[in-house]
Amino acid sequence: MSNFEEAHVLVIDDNLVDRRLIECLLRNSSCKVTAVDSGARALQLLGVDGLKVDLIITDYCMPDMTGYELLKKIKNSSNFKEIPVVIMSSENILRRIDRCLEEGAKDFILKPVKLSDIKKLKDYMKKPSTTCFNCFYSAAASKLPSFAPPCMVVRLMIQEH
């Protein structure tokens, strides 16, 4: 995505003030924002409710489920693993930051979140057409032998969709 217009961001933070600040910064950057106070609620929105988002921003320190635990659940899910995840925290703990990045987080932002942090998030936004194609291609490819030529995979993709 070349800009934030129409980008949908899911924000997860148990702290109301921090959540509202991020919502405000994102909305002022033309993003659509869905904000929740827990990882469990985020997973419900993504799974049961079928919420489609371009980026997930989650706090690290939350009760019940940390941002790291949420990141692992997202990256281990075949349905959500392509969604970029950014972790934020008020604690600058290098081991924690490294662990999140190794698990697949796109970035780790220190609170308080600033407009400059929000502006660099556009680089992490997934491109819907590419991601959609990759998902359909992977699904079709999984039904064929591993040695099947790409044109056969594309044909199956077209037949199914």
Structure notes:
- With 161 residues, the protein is of the alpha/beta class.
- The protein folds into two domains: 8-126, 3-Layer(aba) Sandwich (Rossmann fold), CATH 3.40.50; 127-161, no CATH class.
- It has helices spanning 16-28, 39-47, 67-75, 94-103, 115-120, 128-141, 150-160; strands spanning 8-12, 32-36, 55-59, 85-89, 107-110.
- The chain has a five-stranded parallel β-sheet, with helices on both faces.
- α6 (128-141) packs across α7.
- The two termini are 24 Å apart.
- One of its GO terms (biological process) is cytokinin-activated signaling pathway.
- Keywords: Phosphoprotein, Transcription, Transcription regulation, Two-component regulatory system.
- InterPro entries: ARR-like, CheY-like_superfamily, Sig_transdc_resp-reg_receiver.
Order of helices and strands: EHEHEHEHEHHH
User: By CATH's scheme, which homologous superfamily of the largest domain applies?
Assistant: Response regulator
Main sheet: strands, sense, barrel: 5 strands, parallel
**Which fold does the CATH topology of the largest domain refer to?**
Rossmann fold
User: How many strands?
Assistant: 5
Low-confidence runs (pLDDT<50, min 5 residues)? 128-132
Derived from helix and strand composition plus strand pairing, the structural class reads alpha/beta
Rg measurement, Å: 17 Å
Strand content: 5-15%
Shape: globular
Rounded average pLDDT: 84
Domain Response regulatory: 8-126
InterPro entries: ARR-like, CheY-like_superfamily, Sig_transdc_resp-reg_receiver
Protein name: Response regulatory domain-containing protein
Keywords: Phosphoprotein, Transcription, Transcription regulation, Two-component regulatory system
